Inverse folding.
């Protein structure tokens, strides 16, 4: 019964979040282009590959535990293209991964995890000032990782197996791995975003989320500095 309830609640939450962000950022939806969809599609495929083929699984107390390596890509998609396209990409990533790589019982909660990564990634650029964006992104990633690993995943795993001992054991394993995971994922996320931002911004005329939220402020700062220079 808990399995059914959590599945329904997860699905309803995802639909609600997509509806709310689509309403709040309805102007952003109009700016979604074929090129941005194409880039997201490539990143979705990369996330599926990293999670289901490069990632690894192991048997623990008779249950299968999967270590997902591609979840940080959803955080990057959110940073680059905003919450709406990020949520859609998260839904597509989980659906595609579940279709081609079935490993254990399916739960909508794991799709919600990816949605949360994408939303918190997008919210990195929702502050009034974009100073210290890397620090903000790091904090957002840590918050999403903690919420997913130690709270939501605990609920999803227990609802699937209804085994307190197994759930507690997986929680302890994640707690031990936490500092190592964060020390790996944050540098990868920041460097990957910086590289992709540079490539997209310098090789296309694409008008995307982080460019509007971040680059505009950088341009303004440069203009202010130039205007402050005294003529020789």
């Amino acid at each position: 019964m808990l399995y059914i309830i959590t599945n329904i609640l997860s699905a309803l939450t995802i639909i609600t979040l997509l509806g709310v962000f689509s309403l709040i950022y309805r102007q952003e939806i109009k700016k979604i282009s074929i090129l941005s969809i194409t880039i997201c599609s490539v990143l979705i495929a990369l996330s599926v590959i990293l999670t289901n083929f490069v990632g690894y699984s192991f048997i623990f107390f008779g249950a299968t535990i999967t270590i997902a390596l591609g979840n940080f890509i959803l955080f990057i998609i959110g940073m680059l293209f905003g919450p709406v396209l990020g949520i859609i990409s998260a839904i597509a990533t989980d659906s595609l991964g579940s279709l081609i790589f079935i490993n254990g019982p399916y739960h909508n909660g794991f799709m919600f995890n990816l949605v949360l990564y994408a939303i918190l990634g997008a919210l990195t650029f929702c502050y009034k000032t974009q100073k210290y964006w890397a620090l903000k992104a790091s904090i957002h990633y840590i918050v999403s990782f903690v919420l997913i690993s130690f709270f939501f995943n605990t609920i999803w795993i227990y609802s699937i197996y209804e085994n307190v001992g197994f759930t507690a054991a997986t929680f302890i394993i994640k707690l031990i791995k936490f500092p190592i995971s964060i020390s790996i994922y944050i540098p990868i996320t920041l460097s990957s975003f910086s590289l992709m931002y540079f490539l997209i911004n310098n090789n296309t005329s694409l008008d995307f989320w982080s460019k509007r939220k971040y680059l505009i402020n950088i341009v303004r700062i440069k203009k202010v500095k130039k205007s402050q220079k005294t003529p020789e």
Observations:
- The CA atoms of residues 78 and 122 lie 4 Å apart.
- The chain has one domain: 2-227.
- The chain is about 80% helix and 5% strand.
- Strands lie at 56-60, 63-67.
